[in-house]
Amino acid sequence: MRADGTPGLTLTSARPEKTAVVGRAKEIATKEQADAMRGLKLYIHRDRLPEPDEDEFYLADLVGLEARDPEGVVLGSIRAVQNFGADDMLEIAPAAGGPTWYLPFTKEAVPALHIADGWLLAVRPTEIGEREPD
């Protein structure tokens, strides 16, 4: 499906390859048509995905959660989960407004997730360096 919800491609087969999925679509007949589609983002309705196991979640589940600091102050909300080639980063829209900022999605920076309650614990990098060693 396309980002606007309209049907996009009808996949007839797919196989994993390295860091991608290679697929065939009914609407694409030639190599040139396929090459023109490189980088196309595919979307699927959430109800078509399998339910995650206990203690698992989809990254999309993080979008919209409040990011709270260790004292419970709302820092902002998760706008997106980005990956610029290294690890996942949470893009956070500040509660007070202004430009978004990024937080690494690591256990150290995000030690607790409360998805059902709508928030996660966010430890900003400057706070990580200031914490007492364990």
Describe, in plain words, how this protein is organized in 3D.
There is one protein chain. The chain is mainly beta. It folds into two domains: 11-48, no CATH class; 59-130, SH3 type barrels, CATH 2.30.30.240. The protein is built from two helices and eight strands; from the N terminus they run ββαββββββα. The longest helix is centred in the first third of the chain and has 6 residues, at 31-36. The radius of gyration is 19 Å and the shape is elongated. The chain starts with 10 loop residues before the first strand and ends with a helix. The mean pLDDT is 86.
What topology emerges from the helices and strands here?
Layout: E1 11-17, E2 20-25, H1 31-36, E3 66-68, E4 74-83, E5 88-94, E6 101-104, E7 112-114, E8 119-121, H2 125-130
Parallel strand pairs: 3-8
Antiparallel strand pairs: 1-2, 3-4, 4-5, 5-6, 7-8
